[in-house]
């Protein structure tokens, strides 16, 4: 799904593993869906 949304899959996974632990358990995870996420393109 990351590729379908023009994201680098490895950067997306790294982003998820870095950012999700910072969230409160009550926070919605919709912010992390590939169609919402915008990653920096510094390849």
Ordered list of secondary-structure elements with their pairings:
Layout: H1 9-19
How would you explain this protein's 3D organization?
The structure is a single chain. By secondary structure, the chain is mainly alpha-helical. It contains 1 helix and no strands. The protein has one helix at 9-19. The longest helix has 11 residues, at 9-19. The mean pLDDT is 81.
List the defining traits of the structure above.
globular; 26% helix; 1 helix; 43 residues; single chain; mainly alpha
The gist of it:
The protein has one helix spanning 9-19. With 43 residues, the chain is an all-alpha fold.
Radius of gyration over C-alpha positions, nearest whole angstrom: 11 Å
Largest sheet: none
Question: Low-confidence runs (pLDDT<50, min 5 residues)?
Answer: none
Extended strand count: 0
Please, how many helices?
A: 1
Percent of residues in helices comes to: 25-40%
Task: Give the integer mean of the pLDDT values.
Answer: 81
**Large-scale geometry:** globular
What is the beta-strand fraction?
A: under 5%
Q: H/E element string?
A: H
